[in-house]
Automatic annotation (TrEMBL):
Source species of the chain: Bacillus gobiensis
Protein name: Nitrogen fixation protein NifU
Pfam families, A to Z: NifU_N
GO biological process, one term: iron-sulfur cluster assembly
Entries under CDD domains matching the protein: IscU_like
Molecular function, one GO term: iron ion binding
Gene3D superfamilies registered for this protein in UniProt: 3.90.1010.10
Matches recorded under InterPro entries: NIF_FeS_clus_asmbl_NifU_N (IPR002871)
Length: 150
């Protein structure tokens, strides 16, 4: 077995672990709520986040979809907890660049999220992987806009 083959196997195992044993599954009360879906394949997600003092205090998700979509949501909620909004949004940009097959900033440790980089070879699956990240971006924008109105 080659190194790449072993790495692919490890990445598949990490993805399946997050799919079968999702982290942060559930709903937070009194939080930002974002519902998103991918009409192409039927993936849907509800992301709930508590943001205080510019930091993601907690994040949870509910939904249904393919293993890529649900594993990505599990990985994302795990990665953004405790991060300031700027860092969480930067991680989202890095993830998007990785999914598009572009060069990306590797100075931030993405942890398990790197297991999804192989998805970039399957254009039809990129929307599955990025759904939860788009929900994060929408939630932050909604929260910032709500703050501007008060």
């Amino acid at each position: 077995m080659s190194f790449n083959s072993n790495l692919d196997t490890l990445y598949r195992q990490v993805i399946m672990d997050h799919y079968k044993n999702p982290r942060n599954r559930g709903v937070l009360n009194d939080s930002i709520v974002v519902d998103m879906n991918n009409p192409t394949c039927g993936d849907r997600i509800r992301l709930t986040m508590k943001v205080e003092d510019g930091k993601v205090d907690d994040a949870k998700f509910e939904g249904e979809g393919c293993s890529i979509s649900m594993a990505s949501a599990s990985m994302m909620t795990q990665a953004i907890k405790g991060k300031d909004i700027e860092t969480a949004l930067n991680m989202s940009k890095i993830f998007s660049d990785m999914m598009q097959g572009n060069e990306y900033d590797d100075s931030i440790d993405l942890g398990d999220i790197e297991a999804l980089q192989g998805v970039s070879k399957f254009p039809a699956r990129i929307k599955c992987a990025t759904l939860s990240w788009k929900a994060l971006e929408k939630g932050v924008a909604t929260d910032e806009n709500a703050g501007d109105k008060s």
